[in-house]
Write the structure tokens for this entry.
Amino acid sequence: MQDHSSPTRLFDETVGPKDAAPKPYGQTRTQPVEPVTIAVELSINGKNYALLLDPRTTLLDALREHLHFTGTKKGCDHGQCGACTVHVNGRRVNSCLCLAANHAGDEITTIEGIGNSGALHPMQASFVECDGYQCGYCTSGQIMSAVALLEEPVGPTDADVREAMSGNLCRCGAYQNIVAAIQIVRGKA
Amino acid sequence: MELFQLSRANDVQDAIKAGAASHTAQQGADVRFLAGGTTLLDLMKLNVERPGRVIDISRLPLASVEALPDGGVKIGAMVRNADLAHHVLIRDAYPVLSQALLAGASAQLRNMATTGGNLLQRTRCVYFRDTAMACNKREPGSGCAAISGFNRTQAILGVSDACIASNPSDMNVALTALEAVVHIQGTRGERSVAIDDFFLLPGTTPERETVLEPGDLITHVSLPRLADGSRSLYLKLRDRASYEFALASAAVIVRVTDGRVSHARVALGGVGTKPWRSREAEAALVSATPDIASFRRAAADALAGARPQTGNAFKVELAQRCLVHALTLATRAA
């Protein structure tokens, strides 16, 4: 049990800022930055979209909040969970760590671009067949990762797939079935 | 995230000119180059980095891997980690680099992260990443919350009273063992810096991590040709099997001639405040017989200067075992 009678010392007071007045952090900003919006044209799932964006807007937020491609999910927002995985020019990336404005001219593909409920992508169909999800929140990222993996130099075994999919976390723990779904599409099951 | 002005550099000179307006190229820079974004945007979201200007350099024509006439390789700063790891020139001649890259991050991040950006990858120290906490690296003079805090993952080599943050990169460990050279263009022209000199020890100025000055742009990295008959290998130990930073890692290049080690290069990861070249281990290995006893002596020499904290004394032993195992695998009969 922790003793709550005295405050926990988070850092050594001999080296920490004891009575120092809080220093304005970021004295490095030599001049204030005026808020601006910038015009960005994005190509998503084969269609062009003209947007006016705050330069801070990530590709993930542009997709979800501005264009309502809500199939792509925001999990950690720091490139640690893979829920936001989309394809840029055919390669899988974490859209939460991309600035939307940097991707004018790139071909962006989201989960909405690879299939629909009437015509599933083989990977989507395989996830359904293998029950490769539980709550579904990570699923679009898992599927976008899995589709990209088909074009990457990945070895044949289940262990190879697990390694190649390690950037997509699933809190429900559907990993076994996700690997099975991918291996069926690769013809390695 | 703070507001910033975003622009794209049309060429290298354009980038240098924009970068030169910053008062520093180190922690707290007011102008930042954006390449893959995997470190910078992450830290900007945490307000650990707060540049007023961001210069997109991702489309500069620095994305090729080329064979050099002397047998070495030239790697452009914008080459993505995934492309580098799978490039035939790297896979065949420098397996240690390919292995290190593939041991790092995830497939998505490796598709984004660049060679130049990975050189400048920042520490994962949780106190550096949390603006509520004291951190001499983030805010000079504020103290180090890690020294008396949770320091299990921090460095044990090259530490100072001001900072014990470990360098998290796998790529940089391999590049250090390979004696890579970092090529920089800046306001005063071009220069080349040996990788071991490129990274600085924290000392009393942990906010300074590299020799980069305002306007400096890493254009490429070159690797010397490896000696014929040498074998290279990267071994990484971590808390889970994939997608995790190293607790300890080792990059080794070793050649055995007539039953004796005739050439050795050793670098350690996860344990140093910079990618840790161990000339002590190399000296112990050369002329020794390639066996466990020699490897253990070399590993003990490599860690002799370790200064562990309350939570990471285990790394002293772990790093030695990591190096011994890497040397064993690298010298095993093919």
